[in-house]
Every structure is written in C-alpha cells, then in structure tokens.
Design goal:
- The protein has 171 residues and is an alpha+beta fold.
- It contains five helices and seven strands, in the order ββαβααβββαβα.
- The strands form two sheets. It has a five-stranded mixed beta sheet, sandwiched between helices. The chain has a two-stranded antiparallel sheet with strand order 1-2.
- Strand 5 and strand 6 form a beta hairpin.
- It starts with 5 loop residues before the first strand and ends with a helix.
C-alpha cells in the first residue's frame, strides 16, 4: 500500500494514511464490505440523525448504556432533557445505524475536540443498543466516523475519556 492510495471497498473509497500497514487496510476493507452487504438481519445503513424523529430511540440507547455507570462518564441518572446537549447540540454531528425497517441499532456523535485553534481534531462517542451489541454495529459506526472525519477535514480523532471498565473500548 502506498500512502494516500485509494482502495475500493464495496461502493466506498478508503483513503490509506501514510502509516497504515496492509493488515489494517484489509481489516477496514472487511468492515466496509460488511457495511455494504446484507447482514444476517438485513442491511444496516448509517444516516445523519434527525432530532425530531430520532430523539426518543437515541435516548433509549443512551439511557441503557449509561445506566450501569461502567462505560461512560455521564451520570446514570441523567435526565432525558439533557440528551440534546450531550448528543444533538449544534456543535456536533449525530449519526444513527438503522436496520432495513428503520430500527435504530446504534448512534455516534462527532464534534470538534476543542474550540478555535483546537477544532482540527475531532472527538467521537459511540453507543450501541445493548440488544444489538456484539454484532459489529460499533465497528461500523467507527468506520463511518473515520470517513466522515476525513470529509470534514479533521486531522485526527481524540478520545478524551474512556472508562476503564468499558472493555470493548479499551481492548
């Protein structure tokens, strides 16, 4: 692989960063291919979230994920009204993964990590409905966020706080 080379995976282009080894590229190609092929439960698509329509299903995921207090720093008793500031604020872009009937399986936000001179680095948060964890939805959301970050001209993504008991995120 040459730095900057474009690899086609499914119907998408994957831009290969300068320090990416072939094994990593193959891994991401398989993720992209999975995204564009039907899964055992049908097709999974990622689309921009619409707060008016998606607030309640995203809240259901958000509240279920933070309820245990072992994956995010959000207070497990966060009120539903706070979701707008945490997941739908004007300063962030919110996406959802949906199945073929429109059920929201997971969600992510991407936003500038800092204001002004720090806005060239993104920050992301990912959540998957507990009933759909372990099916690759989080991996698809992450792969989508990497492409979206490139489209928005972010130079990187920084993950500021990951709770140590969030074994999927730290492994």
């Amino acid at each position: 692989m040459c730095p900057g080379e474009v690899v086609f995976a499914g119907k998408r282009r994957l831009h290969v960063p300068a320090r990416t080894d072939l094994q990593s590229v193959r891994k991401w190609i398989s993720v992209y291919d999975a995204f564009y092929k039907p899964t055992s439960n049908g097709r999974v698509d990622i689309r921009r979230a619409a707060e008016a329509n998606d607030y309640d299903p995203v809240w259901d995921i958000f509240s279920a994920v933070i309820r245990t207090g072992d994956t995010y720093v959000f207070d497990p008793n966060t009120p539903k009204e706070a979701l707008h500031n945490y997941w739908f604020a004007d300063s962030m872009d919110t996406f959802v993964a949906v199945d073929e009937v429109g059920t929201i399986l997971g969600t992510y936000v991407i936003k500038p990590n800092q204001i002004d001179l720090g806005n060239h680095i993104a920050n992301c948060g990912y959540m998957v409905n507990p009933n759909h964890q372990g099916k690759g939805i989080g991996r698809l959301l992450c792969a989508h966020s990497l492409e979206y970050a490139r489209e928005k001209a972010y130079l990187g993504i920084q993950f500021n706080s990951v709770v140590s008991t969030n074994t999927h995120a730290v492994s």
